[in-house]
């Protein structure tokens, strides 16, 4: 009897082991691919996550958190993800629209509290939708770290913030658009921008992250490394996680918002970003928690600029994975490069974040991101 039980147990264990082999081989192949990409493109560290049918099926971190200490990068580390942050701002706006506090066609002048008009087209209203879709005709030539750049009462060169085409007629990517969006969120929610995102997006979805450096565990920050093309070396950036305590101490609600960088300041791990991505992939819902309507989520993903494939903080690209339309966003700042892309029809998505690399590009996207996305797709989805 004991022998029979042992034989059965042996066969059960053997069967389970054999069934696990394809997954193990899959992981090993993907990890070998990524190690080769990292070596070829001088990558400091890389965090990745793959989502399929609403579940994270793979997440892993490679390389180092900081090349001066050689501390390993882990899945717990968080990154300043740069422009993917814009989607958190747009999601917040959708929530406020659903609450009846705003309309997507509102005049941005009324929303921010000072005149925002292209001087070449003074009668043309610049709407909230135009800011969200980068069709406002506003540019970053005067900077975007303060609203003073575009405020006629603060900057004598405010007119330079506007391009020479009519609002709503063309696309031009602009960070100032989204720092103004952050201001609107404060004015119409009554909450400071960083707190609003935490209370209405991060906490409901069970995610760790945020815009306020001092609200986060500094030990979890992945150091960002900038590449010097002359020396061909990667060095830690001192600016990526600047706490800006003095500016926050003197904060003016509804105007100081760019301090938190609604356009690029979110800090989050690849794993938690993949959960957030799943919410967008499932049109506003993740693990039974809905934070915005299907209508709003679809609107964010709908092309407004046909040429660029851009909706509202969400882009549509056909040049990432052959034969697949991928929806999402990239980010780059202080040496970081990030990508969050998903296919809402087939229900899969991929997050790739590097904290430093040799920044070569192919067809408008960093080669590390492109190669990482394709490797993960080939090994886990295809």
Automatic annotation (TrEMBL):
<protein>
    <submittedName>
        <fullName>CubicO group peptidase, beta-lactamase class C family</fullName>
    </submittedName>
</protein>
<dbReference type="InterPro" id="IPR001466">
    <property type="entry name" value="Beta-lactam-related"/>
</dbReference>
<feature type="domain" description="Beta-lactamase-related">
    <location>
        <begin position="32"/>
        <end position="359"/>
    </location>
</feature>
<keyword id="KW-0732">Signal</keyword>
<feature type="signal peptide">
    <location>
        <begin position="1"/>
        <end position="25"/>
    </location>
</feature>
<dbReference type="InterPro" id="IPR050491">
    <property type="entry name" value="AmpC-like"/>
</dbReference>
<dbReference type="Pfam" id="PF00144">
    <property type="entry name" value="Beta-lactamase"/>
</dbReference>
<dbReference type="InterPro" id="IPR012338">
    <property type="entry name" value="Beta-lactam/transpept-like"/>
</dbReference>
